[in-house]
Amino acid sequence: MNTKYKKLEDALLNATDLLIEKAKSQGEKALYNLFKSAILQKYKEQYDVEIQQGEVVKDTVDKSIDFLFENACVSFRTLPNIKDLDKEDVIKQAQAALPSWKAMVIQNLTNKGIRVV
Predict the structure, then answer these.
(1) What is the pLDDT along the chain (117 residues), one digit of tens a residue?
(2) How far apart are CA 1 and CA 92, in angstroms?
(3) In a 3-state reduction of DSSP, which class is residue 15?
(4) 116: helix, coil or strand?
(5) In 3D, which of 46, 71, 72, 70 has the Cα closest to residue 60?
């Protein structure tokens, strides 16, 4: 990927994280999660292609999981009858677990004979 484009993408993802953090309502946060998900969607599509070829790039795996997490956040934030503080707690706990989930996925891929580079 073009270095300039990668830096721009990273800056956009970081800015979106700040917007999510500062947003007041769950609806606003869900909108930013949706935006972040749209940025990351290409990695999920790339993952689907790479997995069929038997070799995936670690960054593709990581960002695919980030894509799925952002989509889950959108759905979770819009659930009725759950307090906003409870939603934030669950999302923060899941976010803290992302590195271990990513490691588990990579280990599972390796165990299934998929090369992770």
Answers:
(1) 689 999 999 999 999 999 999 999 999 999 999 999 999 999 999 999 999 999 999 999 999 999 999 999 999 999 999 999 999 999 999 999 999 999 999 999 999 999 999
(2) 30
(3) helix
(4) strand
(5) 46
CA angle 103/109/111 to nearest 5° reads 100
Output the CA torsion sign for 40, 69, 77, 91.
Answer: negative
- How far is residue 71's CA from residue 38's CA, in Å, rounded to a whole number? 9
Question: Counting every residue, how long is the chain?
Answer: 117
For 25, the 3-state DSSP assignment is coil
Single pTM value for the model: 0.90
Distance of CA 82 to the CA centre of its chain: 22
Amino acid at 18: L
